Amino acid sequence: MIQIENLSVRAGDFRIQNVSLTVPSGKYGVLMGKTGSGKTTILETLLGLRSVSLGRIVLGDQDVTTMNPAVRGVGYVPQDGALFSSMTVRDHLDFALMIRKAPKSACQQRVEELADLLGIEHLLDRKPKGLSGGERQRVALGRALSFQPRVLCLDEPLSALDDDTRVRMCELLSDVQKKTGTTTLHVTHNRDEAERLADYLFRIEDGQILQVRPEPQSAV
Amino acid sequence: MGGTYVVLIVGMLVADAAYMTEKTFDGITSEGRSILSAISHNPITTALADKRIQHSIWLSLISCTMSAVISVLVAIPMGYLISRHEFRGKRLLDAVLDIPIVLPPLVIGLSLLILFQFPPFRWIARDVVYQVPSVVLAQFSVACAFAVRTMKATFDHINPRCEDVAVTLGCSRAQAFGWVLLPEAERGILTAFTLAWARSLGEFGPLLIFSGATRMKTEVLSTSVFLEMNVGDIEAAVAVSFIMVMAAVVVLILTRMIGSDHHAIQ
């Protein structure tokens, strides 16, 4: 579960005040909003990259409001993928496990699982340079899922893709989320993307988060 | 205008080469040697056979490498700090880092000399000033500013999201820096090293004031050119200059090769 309660954050001159949002366990939440509405700031706060002024963030059953991002267990896929240019795709997929000092055999098995899940087996020994937009985002998704995070955060991951690739990636995201059961919060300004993916759809407007689907009274 | 500048650069190098070729053949004609002897008897081989020049070459190679390594070690954290963080006094620090670039080289040498009149520097002045360490310090004083500028530009061009992602994957900030950012900055580090090395090789003004121009002691290649010119041996001065040109060209080619290999792998 992702639970944001009465959150206030300050990012330079920009402020978000008293916003709340809940995505139940195993569900796919989408937060929609215009550019500059504060969606990314909320996501970064959830990740622990920005400090909270007021309110709290609960992931699963744990209050992570003041926790270091490294131990929150949140997988992150940024807009541009932010792949590491000096690493191969394989290195990306086992990076988080390597940090956790997982045995080599476990790393290898996880890399194979993810490559199969995301259809990137043929890319494992390549470096990011020369990968297409869709391939880059698959690798970024694999990297974020590699350590089996309790929550997955996607920041406009499909915004740089062409329409066909975007549709295929939407199907992949939906498929991967169902297979892994990872509670997900996806930030986007694209209505079509939001409609395709969201179990829970939120809209951020004038500094307030409104739940669009399911309607609040019928929400579980 | 750009074309004229390129002609000027190439012209200078060609003129050096032509001068030495002329001197080589002058020697062959006057001593009645064969043309093949030009390989073993020319101003460069004569200069290379000179023990003082050999010492100067070794000291140049060692001091330039040391100052370039130290420059890069200082430039990496400094460039990162200026590129990634906002703090009070940042603009002042930025301006201070430009001082070695804009100051006349002789003034840097003089300022270093004066600095070592005061404690705590005075306590080690006997082991530094006019000694080999002063060569490295004088070269470092100028070269480091260029290395810092290069590293700042490098970090400016690396997506800060990469570090954020690394942190969410479980890295500490230090691990994100060492395992993600430094490999991303590899080419910039190489460029900073090369630039610092080349600046150190060409440094002369601060060395003359702060290290002196003592043969077989603090003499580096740039000092050798000055000393040979002082005694009127233009041939030797040009030969040493040519050795410096070749050293610089070799470093540039190696850097480009390593850079393009790295690029190709990516």
Explain this structure.
The complex is a heterodimer of chains A (220) and B (266). By secondary structure, chain A is an alpha/beta fold. Chain A has a single domain (2-218), classed as Rossmann fold (3-Layer(aba) Sandwich), CATH 3.40.50. Chain A contains 6 helices and 10 strands, in the order βββαβββαααβαβαββ. Chain A has helices at 39-47, 89-99, 104-118, 133-145, 163-180, 191-197; strands at residues 2-11, 14-23, 28-33, 54-59, 62-63, 74-77, 151-155, 183-188, 200-205, 208-213. In chain A, strands 6-7-8-3-9-10 form a 6-stranded mixed β-sheet, sandwiched between helices. Chain A has a 4-stranded antiparallel β-sheet with strand order 2-1-4-5, covered by helices on one side. In chain A, a hairpin with a 2-residue loop joins strand 1 and strand 2 (14-23). The model of chain A has no long low-confidence stretch (mean pLDDT 90). By secondary structure, chain B is mainly alpha-helical. Chain B folds into 2 domains: 1-41, no CATH class; 44-265, MetI-like (MetI-like fold, Orthogonal Bundle). In chain B, 80% of the residues lie in helices and 0% in strands. Chain B has helices spanning 2-31, 43-49, 51-84, 90-102, 105-115, 121-128, 132-156, 161-168, 173-184, 186-202, 205-210, 221-230, 234-265. In chain B, helix 1 packs across helix 13 and helix 2 (43-49) crosses helix 13 (234-265). Chain B is globular. The two termini of chain B are 36 Å apart. The model of chain B is unreliable at 262-266 (pLDDT under 50). The chains are: A alpha/beta (220), B mainly alpha (266). At the A-B interface, strand 6, helix 2 and helix 4 of A face helix 8 and helix 9 of B.
